[in-house]
Structures are given as C-alpha cells and as structure tokens.
Amino acid sequence: MRTPLRSLLVAVILAALVPAGSAVATTRATPGARPQAAAAAPAALAAKTTRPGAAVAGRDYVAGRLLVGFRSGTAGARRNAALRAVGASPARALGRQGQLAVTSRAADVPALARRLAARPGVAYAEPDWIRRPNACDPSVCWYLGSAGVDAFGVHTAGRRGAGSTVAVIDTGVAPIDELGSRVTGRWTCEPTCVADTGAPDPVDFDHGTMVASLVAAADDDSGITGVAPEASIKAFKTDTPDGGLPVSAVVSALNTAAAQSDVDVVNLSLGSLVPSQAEEDAVNAVLAAGKTIVAASGNDGNYLPSYPAAYPGVLAVGATNESRGSASFTSYGKVDVVAPGEQVPAINPDGDVEVVDGTSFASPIVAGLIALRPTTGTGRQLRSRLAVEDTATAGAGGGDAKRFGHGVANAPGYVASHDDGAYLVLETSGPADPVDYASSGQLPNPSTNFDAYVLKTDGTLGAVPGQAEASFSVDGTAQAGDRPFVGVGGGVFKAQSGTLDLARGATRTGSAAVEGSSENGSVPVRVLRANDQAPGVPLSGSGDAAWTQAGTLTGAESSNDDVDDVYAVFLGAGDTLDVGLFQAPGRDVPLAALFAPGTTDVFSQFDQVVACADADPSPFCPSSLHYRAPVAGTYLVDVYTGGPVPAGYHLTWAVANSSGLPIAVLTGTCSPNGDGRKDTCTWSAGALSGWTTTSIVTKGFTTVASFAGAGSKSWDGRNTGGTPQPDGAYVLRVLYTHSGGRTLLRTFPLVLDRARPQVSNLVVAPNPFEPVPADGDRDTTTFAINSNERSSQLRVLVYKYGTTQLLRTIAAGNLPAGRQRVSWNGRTLSGVQLRGKVTWRMEITDLAGNVYQTGRYGLTIL
C-alpha cells in the first residue's frame, strides 16, 4: 500500500541490518549503519584471512634484471659504459631504444636503476617488474571479475591505483594489515575535524574499515583485494557513539577533504532521506576543488533518493549481485551507475573476511575504479564522472534505467578512456532549467532537454568541437538536430537539444551523433517512464486530455511497485486550483500532493507541499484539493502510490484566474423541448489577446460537444453528431490556452431537464382567514406544496371569484426542493383589503423553465 505523506516526512533511507539464513553471516550495511561481524566464513575465505606482517605484493621484480631505455643517438659504447658503471651488462635489445640488462641476483636492483637513470644518455631505468594475476581467488573476489567491474586484467596490465588517494568519510578506518601504511591521514570529526596523531583506536570502525578495504586492500596472499590495491586512503571518522553520522561532521570532513591537494576521490557510503543545504554546499566545494564524489544510492529498495548521492554532480551508485542483476534493496531515487553490492567480501577491523550487502559497498568499488586512473587537470571531476557513466556496461535485465542508471561500472573501459586519442560522447537528460540533474530521473517538468558531451579525459580533442554538431532522437523519432558544441570548461564540450516535449511513457533510447568532426560516435539517451518520475507529464493537451490524465498501467508497467506521475501547472498570484483524483473502488488510490514553485525534487522536499488530496481523507489531507496561489509560478501536482494501480486513475483539475476570466453562463439549466422557455443552455466566453478559447461540454470524462472560439455560445442538448442527449448533469469547460503554454480552465455545471416538476400535498391554511381586525389570529394564510426539484419561481395567482380577473400575484423565487411555501395577507398589490370568496391556482417553474400549474381552488377572506 502507499506510504502516507506524513510518514514520508520522517522516513529515513537507513534500513535495519538483515542477517542471512546461511552459515555465513551476511551484513547489509545501510549508509551510516555498522555491520555485524561474520560468525563464520566459507572455506575459500577462511584460507585467506589476514596474517599479521604479510608482505605487500605488487612491486616484485626479477632478481638481477634491469630494463633500460637510451635516448635517441646514444652510441653503443656510451650505453655499455653506463651499464658497467652500475655493475650491469647488456643481455638483449628490447625495441628500438630499450635494453634488457643483467647484474648480480643479490644486487639492490631498484637502487641500481635509480643510479643508472641519472647517467648521461639514459632515458629511463627500472627493475624488471613482475606482473601477476590477482592473488585473491576469483571465486571470492568476484566483484573484480567479469560479474563485477572486470578489474583483474587492468591490475595485470599495471593499473593498480599507485599515486591515487581516496578520502573515505565514514566511521573511521582501523589499522589493518590489508591497508598498512597506505592510510596516509586520519581525522576525527566531532563535528570539527581534528587530525589524529596517535595510534587509532579501532572501536566502532567496522563500516568504514570494510569500505576502505574494498577500495585499497593489498593484492597479496591474504584477505581480499581492493579495486585499487596500491591507492592511498585518507580516513575521516564522522560517527557518534549511537551509530549516526551527523551532517555537521560530514560537512567538516568534506571541507577538510576539499583542502587536501592529493585527494582524487571522495567516497560517501552514507545517507538519509532529507537533503541538507549545508551538506550540498560542502559537496559543491569538493567538486569545485576538482575531486570526484561517489556515494551510495541507499538501501530502502524504493524510489526515494538518498542524500548526498542525489545531489547534482555526485556519482550515485546502486548495487548489483553476482548475476549482474539489480540488488533488491537498492534505492533508485537517483542511480548513475551500479556496482557489486550483494554478497561482497570485505575486511573488518579484526582483519577477518566478512560477507556484506549494501550500496555502501558498491560505492567504494566505483571510488577504487576511478583511483585506478584519476583524471587530471581542470574540470577533472566532471570528466571522471562522465567517463565512468559512458563506459559502464549493461547489467542483467538492465532495461529499467531507473535502477541501473548507465549500467555496471567497468574498469577496462574507464581506464582505456584515458588513452591517447580516446574520446567520449555522453547524453544525459535534465530539467529545462540551468541545473543539470544528470541521469537522476527526478525531472518534475514536462519539458526536457538533452545534453550531449564530447571530451577526452586528457582534456584535448582531435578537432575543435565547436565545429561539430549533435543531433538527438527518442524512440526512433528525430527530436532535434544541428546543435553546436560549446566549451563548458576542463576540455569538456556540450551540445544542448533545447526544450523538448516528450511523449508520456517514452522508454526506448535514442542517440546523439557528433557530426562535422573527426570525433564521431553516438551513445544512448535514457528516457525514463513517466510513472518512474521522469520526464513528467504535461497538465495540458487536447480533447479530454485538456482536463484529465488517465494513468492506466499496462504491460510491464503493471508490475511496477510504484506509481509516481508529476504534472506541472502555472498559477498566477491569486489563481485558484481545484484537483480531483478518482480511482475504481477497491483499488489503491493514489494521493495527490501540490508542491510550491521552486521544487526540484518531489521525492524529498516535503516542506514544499502546500496542499494535498486523498481518497482516504484526514484533517491532514482532505478528499479534494483546493488552493489559492500566493505567488505566481509553476506548481507541481505529484500523484503517487506505493503499489500498482491496474485500473489506472483520473486526475481532474480546474484553474480560476484571480482577475476573473470574461466568462458568463447565462442559462446553466435548460430544457430543449421547443416550448420557448430556456430551450438552450447559453454562455459567453470573452476573447483574451494571445489566447485561444475552446468551450467543451462533457459528460463524465467524455466530450459531448465542442465549440471553438470566443463569443456567445449555446447548446441545444445534442452531441456533435446531432443526437439528443438524455436529461442529467453535464459540465461546461471553457479552456484558454496561451501561445506560451499556460492554460486556464474554468468549469461550470450544465443541466438538461425536459420534465415538469412533480408536486404533491397542496394545502392552503387557514381557510378561511381573517386579516381584519388584525388581532394576530388568522391574519394571514399560507399556500404550501411539495416539489421534487428546486423552483426558480413559485407563484400564486388570485382571481375574482367566478371570473378570470386577476386580483393579485404572490411570488417567491429560488426555493429548494421539498416543502415550498408563500404567505398572503389578503391585500391587492395596491394595498386594498379584499373580503369574501376568491379563487386561486399555483404555478411552479423549475430551473430549466418547465412549468407545473395546479387547478383552481376557493379561498374565503373574512
């Protein structure tokens, strides 16, 4: 069932720890939570537990061998002299300028290489390094294999993160052998960050230690291997004794990391539902310092975003399993890429291997991937993020871009993107405003723009991209073309499609081609389903869609576990909006929440909710939404439920202009029966400059008749085909549409009523009555009758007895259905007091002009 809005206000992404039902304790570490220690480990892991003092592999070399490169033009004699000076001799040539040299097997080869490199004519000298497959058993470190980020081959080729630094803002990092001296800095933030100078206390370091191990655990014969096993770690402890991580401490850690010149990547395996401006400012400071931020998308398994992952510019990471499918617990409010996060081995503070679950552990895998080859230069954080997204590969069943983002992070593709001549073209979708929300999918606006990026990760391009152009398509249909690329800084160039109105439910991908340059290519655009929060649904259209949207779910959509449609409507200051939400009985009825202008994220900015409507009404949220706008702007109507709505829903809306639209309904109830009384329903819709006017008569959600243009209009009770319509209630909808897209809709009731009123129980009392001597006893008489409908007029006509001479008409108007009365004191209109016997009859006229007349009856005036 749908989660009530008031519950969402206090919901938090942090989920409870879930133990597995197997012999191996599995921890799902939600952002900020500390996982429990594993009770046991499988055999493959037990054989690889950390041994104190284990040597760090990765810098081994062949004893007694050197690799030497000589500068062009260096004579053979000079080469041999350089080798002899360090006690080495030539063995064989390697390439045009390279040389394999040998020396004593007991020699300090690295020291000899340094001495040799300083000799004249020597371009380089180095040990004959040994490359090895990862020592970690692939069945254990599956996250490094093809089911994960495919890092084994990258390690073998020499990319292991040496020289890179990852800041881990978490619960602190214990002094485990798997990381050794590569933890180059420690801070405790309470909330101000203070550098730790003594030996760290490993208490409560569980979560941060395991996160750091997945980044940079040594590639040796014990434990596990990190994605970047030679990278350095800077550890920030931001948690409190109760396990929470206050934003104040996180902000201090972010600002401290921003000031660390050697930090390349910041990992944030933490989060909650509520955004923080202070935290977002600190995130922006880190990004402005050129550092990439990677964060966990959350573990709630729903479409609510986790912050800080949901901030623009942050690389949000969801979790996958060994089948490359989306982990069931992954929150997908914003997911840019995914990485292994289910049944992943990590090292805890005791040095033991523990199997864990959570997006907390997918995030550091991506942080380690970036550390394998961090981008340099200005704008590097943007280039790194785009490179990760662009080189991601498809996951299993990854058609839902909401859960998979751009795909599974891929180490070979990311590293290769930095090679000479590499370029990337990436498209993302964002709202039609200056803020780039990348692939978050949180697009409240019905109009969307696409951004195509062309870049080289080294900041250079083979051709001036400003001379190239991009074209865009969605679902195979061309959307925009011939859009030039312009520089956005840091060797990145962007072409924008301009504002596009996407069809509701568009799901297929399109492409952007880079034409006019030596750099050509295309990459998919991900268009998310409307009920998955993007790109939104316009609150406008033609015919019935001008005032209603049918949210019927069919096919694959019917299996979704949520419905979330966003409609945008412009209201001027003082305008009123009325919204009705209807659903078949017995279904889970969505709730409609109205968000104020400036809302960018209907998933979390609940403080922006100004009104709501719910079929299960409460004082908090009544059954209908009525709102008067205090300020002009685009308001968002978010219709959502926590469960599928197989029969769909209908949303109706009406906007009343504060200054009053020039509309007048002259006859709202009519009887087209040819009797000359209210035979047509009539109204007038005045013209507004720059607006088109359409009048539509509807029955329920079905159009009966439509009238184009402004001016006086009338409806004779027939549909567009000329068929008379049955009596009953109808709705007149007068729609004004501005050339700029704003719509104003006023609704009015219309009634067809061809039947005369039905009356009963006609009585006049007292009869006779005695107005003279005005003693308060029977001075007036009352005519009363029952009518089945409201009367526009009730008249009693009094005649001279035995004639048709009218003596007096007594009238009352607009009487409700039921008992209707009118009184008389026996006088004529001129004030003459009548005496004796008179006759009378009653006429009842309903709102449609139908008249019922009674017979004549006698009355005596004493």
Give me the secondary-structure topology.
Blueprint: H1 5-8, E1 26-28, H2 43-46, E2 61-70, H3 76-84, E3 89-94, E4 98-102, H4 109-117, E5 122-129, H5 152-156, E6 165-170, E7 183-189, E8 193-195, H6 206-216, E9 232-237, H7 247-258, E10 265-268, H8 277-288, E11 292-296, E12 315-320, E13 337-340, E14 344-347, E15 353-357, H9 359-372, H10 380-391, H11 401-404, H12 411-416, E16 424-431, E17 447-455, E18 469-474, E19 477-484, E20 486-489, E21 492-496, E22 500-501, E23 510-515, E24 524-525, E25 537-538, E26 548-550, E27 563-571, E28 576-582, E29 591-595, E30 609-613, E31 625-628, E32 633-641, E33 650-656, E34 663-667, E35 669-670, E36 681-685, E37 691-699, E38 702-708, E39 711-715, E40 728-738, E41 743-752, E42 759-765, E43 781-787, E44 791-800, E45 806-815, E46 818-824, E47 836-846, E48 851-853, E49 857-861
Parallel strand pairs: 1-15, 6-9, 6-10, 7-9, 10-11, 11-12, 12-13, 25-27, 35-41
Antiparallel strand pairs: 2-4, 2-5, 3-4, 7-8, 14-15, 16-17, 17-21, 17-22, 18-19, 18-23, 20-21, 23-24, 26-33, 27-32, 28-31, 28-33, 29-30, 29-32, 34-36, 36-39, 37-38, 37-40, 40-41, 42-43, 43-46, 44-45, 44-47, 47-48, 47-49
Helix pairs in contact: 6-9, 7-8
